[in-house]
Amino acid sequence: xxxxxxxxxxxxxxxxxxxxxxxxxxxxxxxxxxxxxxxxxxxxxxxxxxxxxxxxxxxxxxxxxxxxxxxxxxxxxxxxxxxxxxxxxxxxxxxxxxxxxxxxxxxxxxxxxxxxxxxxxxxxxxxxxxxxxxxxxxxxxxxxxxxxxxxxxxxxxxxxxxxxxxxxxxxxxxxxxxxxxxxxxxxxxxxxxxxxxxxxxxxxxxxxxxxxxxxxxxxxxxxxxxxxxxxxxxxxxxxxxxxxxxxxxxxxxxxxxxxxxxxxxxxxxxxxxxxxxxxxxxxxxxxxxxxxxxxxxxxxxxxxxxxxxxxxxxxxxxxxxxxxxxxxxxxxxxxxxxxxxxxxxxxxxxxxxxxxxxxxxxxxxxxxxxxxxxxxxxxxxxxxxxxxxxxxxxxxxxxxxxxxxxxxxxxxxxxxxxxxxxxxxxxxxxxxxxxxxxxxxxxx
Length: 444
Ligand code: F3S
Known about the structure:
Blueprint: E1 2-7, H1 11-26, E2 30-31, E3 40-45, H2 50-69, E4 74-79, H3 80-84, H4 86-92, E5 98-100, H5 108-116, E6 121-123, E7 145-149, E8 151-152, H6 163-167, E9 171-172, H7 175-187, E10 192-196, H8 205-208, H9 213-221, E11 228-231, H10 241-249, E12 253-258, H11 266-271, H12 278-291, E13 296-303, H13 310-323, E14 327-332, H14 350-373, E15 379-387, E16 393-397, E17 409-412, E18 422-430, E19 435-439
Parallel strand pairs: 1-2, 1-3, 3-4, 4-5, 5-6, 7-10, 10-11, 11-12, 12-13, 13-14, 17-19
Antiparallel strand pairs: 8-9, 15-16, 15-18, 16-17, 18-19
Bound molecules: FE3-S4 cluster.
C-alpha cells in the first residue's frame, strides 16, 4: 500500500512525521507523493497560530477530495490540530478515518489496522505520555542533515502560547534513546544534527534533576562521522556558563544559537510571562559574543502583542538596531483560544501588527546585508544542499545558517558536488540574506 504524507508546522512535527514514516516502512508500506494514487493519506498538522490552523484545515479538506474520488482508502489526521480539535475534525470532515494526537503518533500502525478493517480510530489522550521514537526514521530532509528531538512539551506557559496545551508538559527523552537515534542517523549518512525541542536548554531537568544539555552535546560530539551539531530553541534565561563552555570548546558544535526573545520591552515581556528582561537579554547576547568568537545569533520576535504601544514597538526597533542579531524572524501576534493573552484588553489591529512586522524586517534586512558584506573575502566550510537547475552553481550553508529559516551561499563551480559534501568557499559577494562564493582551493 502506498502512503502519502503531508507534514505541516515545525521541525518537531517533522520528526514525528519521520518516525511515523519509519514505522510504516518497517511494516512494509511504501510512499508516494502523488495524491491521486495514494491508498493512505496522512496529514500531520500544526495549530500554533491562526494561519497555521487555516493551512492545516485547508490541507485536510483538499486531501478529503481524494478519499471521495481517488484511490485513497484511509485519511488520517495527526499532530497539533488533531490534538486540539479532535472532535471537531471528526464531526465536520466525514472523510477523516483516524485521529492521532501529539502523544500518540507512534500508534500509526494500530490506527491503520483498525481503519483498513472499516473502523474509526481516535487516540488523543495521554498528553503526558512520551511517544516512542525508537525506530529507524525515514528522513525527508535529503539524508545529509536531520533534526534530533531531545524533548517533548513545554512547562514555561508564556501567556500567548498554546503549545503546552497541545504538546503537554516538558518531557526529556532519555539520553541513551537520543544517542542511539543519533548514531543510527549518522551511520545512515547524516552529517549535521540539529537539536530541537520546545526548549532545548532545560534538557534533562525532569528526568535527571539537572540541565544535561552540555553532557548530551559532549556525547554527541564523540560520534564518528558527525560533522556539525546545531542548537535551536534555547531560552535566554536557561543558557548557562557550562553550555557556553561546551559550545566554545567542541569544534563539532556550530558557533550558532537560536534564542527566541519575542520582545524587548520589559512591560511586554512581563505580560508575555517571559522570565527575562531587556538588560538580561543584552547580558546574555554580550556574553555569548564575548566567549564564542564568530557566533551567529538567531532570534524571533512577536509584533502586536495585546497592549503593545507605538513606544514599545520603537523600543524593539532600537533594540534590534543595537543588538544586530545575525538572523531574525518576526511573527505577528495571534490570539489563541485557551491562552491568557487572548483574553487581554487592548488587542492590536491586524494591520498595525503587519506594519510593525514589516518595519522590523526592513531594518533587519539592512543589518543582515551589512553583516553579509562584511564576510566578503572570508572563507567558510560549507555544506552542499543541492545544485541549481541549469547552472554550474550549488546552494550550500555555512555554520551561520540553519536549513529553511536562514540564508544560503551560492557557489559557482564546474566541479561535480554532491548534496551533503563539505567544501571550503570564499565569499565573493553578498545578496540580501544570502552570500555568493567560490571554492577556496587553498583550504579544500
Ligand atoms: Fe510545531 Fe505547529 Fe505543533 S509549530 S509544535 S506543529 S503547533
